[in-house]
Amino acid sequence: MGMQRSHRNNVSLARTPSIARIVAGILAPVCAASVLMLAAPASAQAGNPCTSEWIKFKHFFDQNGPKVAKGICQYFNKDDVAAAKKCIADFEAAKAKVDSTINTYNGKVGDSQWKVGPRGLGENQWLDGTLLAERTFAGPPVMSDKYRLEFQRTGGKARNTLQATVCFLDERGNSALAPVRFSVDRNRTRYDHTFSGVAGLTPVILLKKPWGFDGHKYKIRGNSGAEPEIVSKARAAGKGGKNSGVAPCANPCPDGGNYDGANCYVGTPPGGTKAFLYAGNYYYTPKANKSCPVPGSSYDGANCYVRRAPEKAFIWSNNWYYKGCR
């Protein structure tokens, strides 16, 4: 579980091809390296460095990419409640596979074998390292219209510039969006950007500097936004009741979290600690050594601050919740 205090708001709105129909387009190829496709943009700029990395490390992508069935939530009539509910159920099943991959990636933090070759980039959790020459990161397909990437230079003796390239690849390894490049050095130490229109695409980040024993120390983190707008529209079309699992509004959890059919689940503190609310914020009690292991949380001298809590926040069964739209 990971949480952040703030997000930059770059919103991408899905487009419908006709008044009567909604196109969701979660597609996956029939080849072994199947990945999720959620209304992904058309492929562009094949042959870029990220595509070269895809080819170079194809075995990694084949072994680590989630396998998703073809034909999830492609078309449904906005007045067809049953089809809308099936679309949501199929989407949530696909998302569960992606979430499982994220948990696998997050669980390998600190594994020395994971530092050889490409590294899987989970979500809501910092990965750190020292760049001496090149490094490739790849996340699972994005289950949102938005994806936030944060990168920070944290130290090191390197004096030359670290160059980074960010791509979002389709199922064939082609760049569906134009690659974005940024650089960091001793004077420019941070990069923070939210990408739009990336649902169903695989984020790949390439880091490079001239080889040398003096490296750049860094940390990197990725984070998907709320569920795609097309799925929110399906929830609205479903007009579900409290226990249906289908939210009766377009975005049931506007402050993040997952809709559980009644409320918005935000997260659970570590074992042996207690979740609570204080001064409009989510908190939990620290571990015995005063540590705050939840990614993104911090020790304030007494307890562990997590993030701002929405207006209708509450604690239930030692979990952070809030009431979303009804």
Compact description:
This protein has 326 residues and is an alpha+beta fold.
How would you characterize the overall build of this protein?
This protein is α+β, with helices and mostly antiparallel strands and 326 residues long. The chain has four helices and 21 strands. The chain has helices spanning 49-56, 58-64, 81-107, 229-238; strands at residues 21-23, 26-27, 37-38, 75-77, 119-120, 127-131, 134-138, 146-155, 162-169, 180-184, 190-196, 202-208, 216-224, 258-259, 264-267, 275-278, 281-284, 298-299, 304-308, 313-316, 319-322. Strands 5-7-12-9-10 form a five-stranded mixed beta sheet. The longest helix is centred in the N-terminal third of the chain and has 27 residues, at 81-107.
Features:
326 residues, alpha+beta, globular
Secondary-structure-derived class:
alpha+beta
Low-confidence stretches: 1-46, 67-71, 240-247
Q: What is the succession of H and E elements?
A: EEEHHEHEEEEEEEEEHEEEEEEEE
Under CATH at level 1, the class of the largest domain stands as: Mainly Beta
How many alpha or pi helices? Answer: 4
Strand content: 25-35%
Which sheet architecture does the biggest sheet show?
5 strands, mixed
The average pLDDT is: 75
Query: Share of helix among residues?
Result: 10-25%
Q: Kindly report how far apart the N and C termini lie.
A: 25 Å
3D shape:
globular
- Count the beta strands: 21
From the structure provided, what is the oligomeric state, counting identical versus distinct chains? single chain
**Second-tier CATH architecture of the largest domain:** Sandwich
